[in-house]
Design a protein that fits this description.
Pfam families: NTP_transferase. The chain has 301 residues and is of the alpha/beta class. The protein is built from 12 helices and 13 strands. It has helices at residues 38-48, 63-68, 73-81, 85-92, 112-118, 120-123, 144-155, 215-221, 233-240, 261-272, 279-288, 291-294; strands at residues 7-11, 32-33, 36-37, 53-58, 100-105, 128-131, 135-138, 158-164, 174-182, 185-193, 204-212, 246-250, 254-257. A hairpin with a 2-residue loop joins strand 2 (32-33) and strand 3. The longest helix has 12 residues, at 144-155.
Length: 301
């Protein structure tokens, strides 16, 4: 049986233009869902699957991510002095013991494939995972990457998270054509980046979780620029299919596209309704909203 994936790559160099001006001077991955930034949810998911080395591919204005996972001596000392034990514990749990961080600067914004390629020196010849923090996934009983880890251990090959999406949204995703090999698991025969709905091979879309073999790095080195003039990870995976088995896994859980404002708002509402400190009061507040308050015209009255 394969070992656990030890290294997790987080491409966090994107500009986050859909959230301007909030992301003008701060990373979109630091946007909070209730009381934790998106990147922390992603890190916790990786650690739950056994990751011990976290590799962040960063860009300009991303220092807040580095600061978030650094030790805050002054803050911890102040919380300890004031007897705020619970808050101190929260701060100290941001980076679990035994987990290390590596930060690599992506000098040019050349796409997801290029960002993953930047991680090659830190990953070496190990299988590894890639997590896109703005795809927040509530795995319900088990985190998404931990689910994928089980598939990886059973089949010993690359695994990509997928979900079925409406036809109207197909053009925003990489889409796969699969041969079923198990419950929710399929061998990918073809992968197409952002096809038109009429050209899509299926309604099964790739979301931001990947377990990959290091062979992908050699393929990325010779991957030409594709959609948007960027080096697409999807194009390299398409080449990988010619050499190795790559599996699609339909995870159990709910995905929130926090790269969009609506998806981000949905995540805050639904995570707020599960928050141990806020859930009851927040539910009462939402229940108390009248239909008039929810109508767009009410703001004009």
């Amino acid at each position: 049986m394969r070992m656990r994936i030890r290294k997790a790559v987080f491409p966090v160099a994107g500009m986050g233009t859909r959230f301007l001006p909030a992301t003008k001077a701060s990373a979109k991955e630091m946007l909070p869902v209730v009381d934790k930034p998106l990147i922390q949810y992603a890190v916790q998911e990786a650690v739950s699957a056994g990751a011990q080395e976290l590799i962040f591919i960063t860009g300009r204005s991303k220092n807040s991510i580095m600061d978030h996972f650094d030790k805050a001596y002054e803050l911890e000392a102040e919380l300890a002095a004031k007897g705020k034990g619970k808050l101190l514990e929260l701060v100290q749990e941001v980076l679990p013991p035994g987990v290390t961080c590596i930060f690599i600067r992506q000098a040019e914004a050349l796409g997801l494939g290029h960002a993953v390629l930047c991680a090659a020196p830190a990953v070496g010849d190990e299988d590894f995972c890639v997590i896109l923090a703005d795809d927040l996934i509530d795995g319900k009983l088990r985190p998404c990457l931990a689910q994928m880890q089980r598939v990886y251990q059973e089949y010993g090959t690359s695994v990509i998270a997928t979900q079925r999406v409406p036809k109207s949204e197909i053009s925003g995703y990489g889409v796969v054509d699969v041969k079923p090999v198990g419950e929710g698991i399929g061998e990918i025969r073809r992968i197409v980046e952002k096809p038109k709905a009429e050209d899509a091979p299926s309604d099964l879309a790739v979301v931001g979780r990947y377990i990959l073999t290091p062979r992908i790095f050699k393929l990325l080195e010779r991957t030409p620029r594709g959609a948007g003039g960027e080096i697409q990870l999807t194009d390299a995976i398409s080449m990988l299919l010619q050499e190795q088995t790559v599996l699609s896994y339909q995870f159990e859980g709910t995905r929130y596209d926090c790269g969009s404002k609506l998806g981000y708002l949905k995540a805050n509402v639904e995570y707020g309704l599960k928050h141990p400190e806020l859930a009851d009061d927040f539910r009462k507040y939402l229940t108390g909203l009248t239909d008039d308050l929810l109508k767009p015209d009410s703001a004009k009255k």
